[in-house]
Amino acid sequence: ARRVQSIQPMKGEGMDTLVSAVLVGLVGVFCMLDSRLLGRLNFEQPLIGATLVGVVLGDVPTGLAVGAAVELVSMGLVSVGAAVPPDMVLGGIVASAFACLTGASAETAMTIAIPVAVLGQLLGVVFRSIIVFLGHVADGAIEAGQFKRAYRMHIVWGTVLYSLMYFLPIFVAVYAGTDVVQAVVDMIPDWLTNGLNVASKVLTAYGLALLLSMMINKGMTVFLILGFMLASYLGLSVIAVSIFGVILAIILMGFKFGSGQLATAGAVDPDYDPLEDDDE
C-alpha cells in the first residue's frame, strides 16, 4: 500500500525544473503561513494549494482537478486537539506539481498525494516535538524581561522553521522526482511509523481531554454521553450523530425560547422584569 506509481522526470530540465521546484515550494510555504501568520484565510486547503500550483506552473485546470480529488479525501480527516492527521495540503501540492509538469491525470496524481501526505504527517509529529523547545526559550526570555527575544522565537524563528518544514520536502520531491519520495517513504522503519501512529492516537485523546476540560459542564455532560452512546452502541456515523444533535438542538430551542415558556414564566412571576436579567 505504500508503493506509489513511478513518474518519469518532468518536462523541462536543469534551470526550468529548479525554478518550478522553487515556485511550488513557495506556494507550500504560503499555504502553511495561512493558519500560523495570516489569520486563517482558508488558503491552507488541498483544493486551494493545488490550484495555486496550477497557477504558477501555467496549468490551472490540472491543478484544480487534482486539488478537487485530494480535497474529497481530506474531507474525511479531522484534526482534533493536538492530533496530527495526514498532511493532505502537502500531498495535494506535490501531486498537483507532478500532474502539471508531466501531464499525468488526477487519478495518477492521487497515487503520489497519499504517501506524501503520510510523510508530511510523520514530519509534522517530529517537528512539533522539536519546536516545543522554542516555547520554553520564549518563557525563559519573558521571565528575564527579554520581550524582543520572546517575540522573535514565535514570530521569526517559529515561522522560519515551519516554512522550511514545508519548503524542503516539496522542493526535493518536485526537483528529484517520485522515486526519491518513494525511497524516503520506504526508508522509514516500521517501528518508527508504528510509534508515531501510537503517539498521534494518544495526542488525539489528550487533545479531546483538553477541549472537554474547557467546554464541558453539568448541562452538557448528558449530551456528550448521549452522542457517545449513539456512536458506540448504535454504530451511527459522525454525520448521523451530528444530524441528531442539530434536530435535538432545534427542539430544545423551541422549548426554551417558545412563547409557551414566556407565558409560563409570566404566570409564575408577574413582577418579572427582563431588564434585571440583562443587568446580571
Task: Tell me what the structure shows.
By secondary structure, the chain is an all-alpha fold. 79% of the residues lie in helices and 0% in strands. The protein has helices at 15-38, 46-57, 60-74, 88-102, 106-143, 147-176, 178-187, 190-215, 218-233, 238-257, 259-268, 274-279. It is globular, with a radius of gyration of 25 Å. The N and C termini lie far apart (60 Å). 26% of the residues are buried. Residues 1-12 and 260-266 have low confidence and may be disordered.
Given as residue ranges, the uncertain stretches (5+ residues, pLDDT < 50) are 1-12, 260-266
| Helical run tally | 12
Helix content: over 70%
List the secondary-structure elements in sequence, H or E. Answer: HHHHHHHHHHHH
User: What is the mean predicted local confidence, pLDDT?
Assistant: 76
| Class inferred from helices and paired strands | mainly alpha
How far apart the termini lie comes to: 60 Å
Counting DSSP E segments of at least 2 residues, the number of strands comes to: 0
Shape descriptor: globular
Radius of gyration: 25 Å
Main pleated sheet:
none
Strand content: under 5%
